Amino acid sequence: MGKDVIIACDFNSKAEVIAFLEKFKDEKPFVKIGMELFYAEGPDIVRTIKGMGHKIFLDLKLHDIPNTVKKAMAVLSGLDVDMCNVHAAGTKGMMQAALEGLTRADGSRPLLIAVTQLTSTSEEVMQQELWIDKPIDETVMHYAKNTMEAGLDGVVCSPLEAGKVHAVCGEKFLTITPGVRFADGDVGDQKRVTTPAKAKELGSDYIVVGRPITQAADPVAAYRRCVEEFVG
Ligand SMILES: O=C(O)c1cc(=O)[nH]c(=O)n1[C@@H]1O[C@H](COP(=O)(O)O)[C@@H](O)[C@H]1O
């Protein structure tokens, strides 16, 4: 898979997400299904969107004891998604268990990535509230190294950290980066943000973009603007 824009389809019903995706006549965007849509509609929504020809990042951010995560991943491995994720804070043991659970009998599996520090978390909150007494960049790099050592394919981080993650973990280690806004757009609850063009410059492999596309007056035009800036 090459550089791509993943649309975070944070809707709470099948009707809404299908109506949204049907606006795209000339392209088949890579779709992220997150907790809101999955909890509302269940696994069938994954099959439906896959059946429409979209690649799928199933973003359920698993974080639990290794055995529970392994068994949950074994269930998700039957869904034919392209990418799914866990929290790196669950430990290397949990990430390895996730990988084992996700790997099918024939050895195939979706890409598995780990969230480092959520892009909605500022360094100040991480240090003062979560009691992680380090600079946020160092924390993200440390979690990325743990993720690589556990054998996963990459991390979710801010585009601002993508270049450093590649420097530490290598160019092939994937950086999937939410926290993307147009230069003239609202930041909302995100804290560690940048533009699609800057994300490209910093070396992100995939940008994840939700509201700047889903809430745009013309979502297809907003998607194309992301692709133009990020993929070129
Ligand atoms: O794992 C994620 O996808 C994720 C990790 C993270 O650190 N930050 C983050 O925003 N996300 C997701 O990326 C999407 C960003 O959406 P917007 O802020 O609307 O562009 C949401 O669906 C989040 O759940």
Overall radius of gyration: 17 Å
Output the strand order for the largest sheet: 1-2-3-4-5-6-7-8
- Helix content, binned percent: 40-55%
Counted by DSSP, the helix tally is 11
What percentage of the residues does DSSP assign to strands (E)?
A: 15-25%
Q: What would you call the shape?
A: globular
Q: What is the element string, with H for helices and E for strands?
A: EHEHHEHEHEHHEHEHEHH
Count of separate structural domains = 1
Low-confidence stretches: none
* Count of strand segments: 8
Largest sheet: number of strands, sense, barrel closure? 8 strands, parallel, barrel
Provide the CATH topology.
TIM Barrel
CATH superfamily: Aldolase class I
Distinct compounds present: orotidine-5'-monophosphate
Q: Give the helix/strand class.
A: alpha/beta
Mean model confidence by pLDDT: 97
First-residue to last-residue Cα separation: 16 Å
Q: What is the CATH C-level name? A: Alpha Beta
CATH architecture term: Alpha-Beta Barrel
Function: Catalyzes the decarboxylation of orotidine 5'-monophosphate (OMP) to uridine 5'-monophosphate (UMP).
Catalytic activity: orotidine 5'-phosphate + H(+) = UMP + CO2
EC number: 4.1.1.23
Keywords: Decarboxylase, Lyase, Pyrimidine biosynthesis
Describe this entry's structure for a reader.
- It is a single chain.
- The model has no long low-confidence stretch (mean pLDDT 97).
- The protein is an alpha/beta fold and 232 residues long.
- Helix 7 (136-149) packs across helix 8 (159-169), helix 8 packs parallel to helix 9 and helix 9 packs parallel to helix 11 (219-230).
- The protein has helices spanning 14-21, 35-41, 44-51, 66-76, 92-102, 123-128, 136-149, 159-169, 196-202, 211-214, 219-230, and strands at 4-8, 30-33, 56-62, 83-87, 111-115, 154-156, 174-177, 206-209.
- The protein has one domain: TIM Barrel, CATH 3.20.20.70.
